[in-house]
Each structure stands twice: as C-alpha cells, then as structure tokens.
Amino acid sequence: MTSSNIRVNLPQNSYDIAIAPGSLSQLGNSLSELNIGKKVLLVSNSTIFKHYGEQTINSLQDAGFEACYHLIPAGERHKTPASIRKLYDTALKNRLERSSTLIALGGGVIGDMTGFAAATWLRGINFVQVPTSLLAMVDAAIGGKTGVNHPRGKNLIGAFHQPKRVLIDPQVLTTLPAREFRAGMAEVIKYGVIWDTELFERLEAAKRLDSLRYVDPELLQTILARSVQAKADVVSKDEKEAGLRAILNYGHTIGHGVESLTGYRLVNHGEAVGIGMVVAGELAAAMEMWQPDEAQRQNALIEKTGLPTQIPSMLTARAIADSLKNDKKVKAGKVRFILPTHIGSVTITDDVNPDILHEVLQKNIQKTP
C-alpha cells in the first residue's frame, strides 16, 4: 500500500492529510515539522490506548515533546459537556498553554471532543487528528467540525476548529472490530453517492465489503484516498457549511434522529447513516427525483457492506419526524434534506411533503416477527 498526501486548501489554516502505513510510530517527527509548542496532551479511550498509547507517547517523547494523556470512556453516550469538563481539568493540571497541542487518538467521538476542547481551551489551541477508525479516517477527522451532544440532539454544541494535521495510518485498522469497519463503509458509500461515481462503481465491483479481511490493499488505498479527497474537495470549497458542504450530511438527517431516539446504544453512527441513506434514497425516488433502479443499486451496496437498512422496530415515523425539528440543518423552521438525483450527485431541498416523508419512514421501519 502506497503513501499519499492530500491538502485541504482553506483561506486560513490549510493543512495536510497524510495517508501512510506505519506512520503512527513517526507521529512525533511529523509534528516536529509543524513548529508547535512542546506540551502535548494525547486524548484517547482505554481500548485504543491499550493498543497504541505506549507507542504514541514514546514517539512524541523521542521527538522532544512533553506528553501526557487523558482517557475518555468509549461510546457516543460519553460525548457530553461533562466529559469535556474532565478534559479541561487535565489540561489545567498539566498547565497547557496557548502554544500547546491536543492530539486525538481514536475514532470520531474522540476526535470531535478533542477538537471541541481545543477550540475552547484558552480560546483555541493547536489540534492534531490521528484517527484509528475507518469512519474517522474518511470523514470525522477531516474538515474541522467539532462538538458534543445535547440530550435532545447530536452535535448541537460545537465549533469549527481545523486541525494542524491529520495523520492516517491504515495499519491500525487491523485492530478495528468488524462492526466498526462496516460503520466506516457507510461514509465511504456516501461519498460515492454524493460525489464520486467511480468510487461507487469500484465498491460495486468488490465481492465483499463487510470486513477488512475481504478488502485487498489496493481497494483499501482507493477507499481511503478517494474518500479523503472527496471530503477535502468539498471542505475546501465551503469550510463553514454555507452551502455545498451540507451535502456531506447525506444520510445523516434521518440517521441522527435514529441515533438520538435509541439513546446512542442500539445503532452506531455508521449504521444510522446507512439507514438514513436508504430512507433518503427512497424519499428521492418517491418524489421522482431519482431513478428507482439507482436507489436499488445504493441499497444493494449498503446490504453488501453488512449494514442495517431498516429503522429499528421500536421507533415510530412520527417520533423520527418530530426529532428532525431539533436537527442542526433546520433553517427558518424547515428541515433541509440532501437527496440524490444521480449516483455521484445530490441536491439540497427543504420542499419535502410531510405525507410522503411519513409514508417512506413507515415503510422502512423494521417489522417485528
């Protein structure tokens, strides 16, 4: 597997995303190039830290950094202001300064929380992303969106704060549980639908996508590089989600509702996005914006990845529709949906008939035996 470097070009705070096998052991040397302060606080969870914490701390210390660490319990339900307050306590205890750096070593939850802490501690300090899950590598670690959840909605508390660098070491995926790999594939499929027809077709051509062991190194390189490039392209054009960047929320509108209504315990983020893409695709088909055969191609790809495609049976169409009113994408009281028009292209609309939405939601709720 080859190494590659992708640039996120922004009016201010541009940065590089390095995809390089074995690069975790070189983290300290990589950060030495950034001209940042010597104090670094590594943020992770106990599972990730058990695998990669010692290696990461040693790399930082060997490069001359004063490294300490803070662990947050694993899981979306710990993505709260209370967890951030404990992180602040560690930052204060270790006397982090404005030149200091927070390093996120983990998946999307760790990255979002670490970034939010970096955005708000001392009004903003350096931040580096070292994603360890596929979902974080292709999506959450890129673009500067940071935040925590409110009890009534996902990521309602947050800030834009771009990392100084994103370091992706594909070798860490070997310790990623298969369910988490599948969750990351939901975001990869998303890029195929909204932006990259060739990526979509490459995924269709693969025999199996439900586990890393069925993905050969060349296909993994394609998945990482094309997904990262898609995210970098969109963010470079619209850093703060004034328009185009909203397309990255494809599948997330319904997905966030499913996540929050099930208490972030039953389905993970990628699984919720997979369900959300099925609903969005069928909604677009019902509104005659998308061809039914393309909707079926998308759904077949989601199924091939081993992701759920139906809304959990304990939820109702009304509850999901009501939850959308708390979504960040609501504008002037209207929910904005990202709906596909062709594979590789989507549109943003707030003109969705509530009756059609209810019908599509009802149709996609899992039937109890």
TrEMBL record:
Keyword Lyase included in the entry's annotation: yes
One GO MF term attached to the UniProt entry: metal ion binding
GO cellular component term, pick one: cytoplasm
Residues binding NAD(+), per UniProt: G108, V109, I110, G111, D112, T132, S133, K145, K154
Domain 3-dehydroquinate synthase N-terminal, residue spans: 71-182
Compartmental location: Cytoplasm
Cofactor note: Binds 1 divalent metal cation per subunit. Can use either Co(2+) or Zn(2+).
GO biological process: one example: chorismate biosynthetic process
Coiled coil: none
EC number, UniProt record: 4.2.3.4
Associated pathway: Metabolic intermediate biosynthesis; chorismate biosynthesis; chorismate from D-erythrose 4-phosphate and phosphoenolpyruvate: step 2/7
Enzyme class, first EC level, given as a word: lyase
Sequence positions that bind Zn(2+): E187, H252, H269
Origin superkingdom: Bacteria
Catalysed reaction, written as an equation: 7-phospho-2-dehydro-3-deoxy-D-arabino-heptonate = 3-dehydroquinate + phosphate
Keyword terms, alphabetized: Amino-acid biosynthesis, Aromatic amino acid biosynthesis, Cobalt, Cytoplasm, Lyase, Metal-binding, NAD, Nucleotide-binding, Zinc
The UniProt record lists the keyword NAD: yes
Cofactor(s) annotated in UniProt: Co(2+); Zn(2+); NAD(+)
InterPro entries, per database record: Dehydroquinate_synthase, DHQ_synth_AroB, DHQ_synth_fam, DHQS/DOIS_N, DHQS_C
CDD domains attached to this UniProt entry: DHQS
NCBIfam families attached to this UniProt entry: aroB
Protein family: Belongs to the sugar phosphate cyclases superfamily. Dehydroquinate synthase family.
HAMAP family: DHQ_synthase
Summary of the function given for this chain in its UniProt record: Catalyzes the conversion of 3-deoxy-D-arabino-heptulosonate 7-phosphate (DAHP) to dehydroquinate (DHQ).
Protein name: 3-dehydroquinate synthase
Source lineage: Bacteria, Bacillati, Cyanobacteriota, Cyanophyceae, Spirulinales
Gene behind this protein: aroB
